[in-house]
Design goal:
258 residues; alpha+beta; eight-stranded antiparallel β-sheet; 16 strands
Length: 258
């Protein structure tokens, strides 16, 4: 698979194939420490990126998915509405890639939602076979906030041969399990620093990131394959205000509980 191990231990040091796939970085990555800089959370290929239009984003050219359905009913209508005309970016982690994921900036995690589902492969071939594949597959949704109270979502999509999606901040999130019930988790004071490891895939998969409009300044001109630590955009300057505080409150009040 042409795994590049220059920043890792040599292949012989891993006891199993899974240990190789879930390897830790040995040589630290450098990244822009400016708090406004948003970095790539992983090593990946950007399968699609652009503007969210009419609740729709592309999983790959010619195939789309609905943002509302991706996030599930545990994310309120008001929060979904805030994403309209915002930005989406899909990160595909192939089996050869580094499988751990990190905080793209200093952020607060307010909520996690685990949505059981299928485990279709998420490679570029399958993205052109299955309509709304991201919605069909198992996934974990994180509702996150920047220091300036811009909301954004990180959606971790399961895939074929992914034993688990692991989240260090909450071991109770159990994926690829027998339960078919959706579960949600609220956090009152969970802060993560930019670059900190959030968790890992036990095989290649996909991360979808969704941002409200005008939250960040983007440069898509050079986006194709990205590496963890690479700068992708910058948070726009904004001071917290009553509007954002109201939306955050609605997120808790509107969430449906089965």
């Amino acid at each position: 698979m042409n795994v590049d191990l220059r920043a890792f231990q040599n292949a012989a040091s891993y006891e199993s194939l899974n240990a190789l796939f879930t390897r830790k970085i040995v040589t630290p990555r450098s990244f822009d420490t400016d708090e406004r800089a948003l970095i790539s959370p992983c090593d990946a290929k950007i399968s699609a990126c652009g503007t969210i239009e009419a609740d729709t984003a592309l999983q790959i050219k010619g195939f789309s998915y609905r943002i509302g359905a991706l996030l599930s009913d545990y994310v309120s209508k008001s929060m979904k509405q805030k994403l309209q005309n915002g930005v989406f970016m899909n990160f595909y982690l192939s089996p050869k890639d580094y499988h751990r994921y990190h905080a793209p900036l200093d952020m607060r995690i307010a909520k996690a939602v685990h949505i059981p589902g299928k485990l279709y492969p998420v490679n570029l071939t399958w993205l052109q076979k299955v309509d709304e594949l991201f919605i069909e597959n198992e996934r974990v949704v994180l509702e996150c906030y920047t220091k300036n109270d811009h909301v954004f979502y990180m959606v971790f999509v399961g895939a074929l041969n992914v034993g688990k999606m692991v989240f260090h901040f909450d071991p109770s999130i159990q994926t690829n399990a027998s339960s078919k019930l959706q579960r949600y988790y609220y956090y009152t004071d969970l802060h993560v620093k930019k670059g900190d490891e959030i968790g890992l895939f036990e095989m290649g998969s996909t991360i979808v990131m969704l941002f409200e409009p005008n939250a960040l300044e983007w440069d898509f001109s050079a986006v194709d394959c990205v590496t963890f630590g690479q700068t992708l955009g910058r948070v726009r300057r904004h001071e917290p205000n009553e509007h954002y505080q109201t939306i955050a409150a609605e997120s808790t009040a509107d969430a449906s509980v089965p």
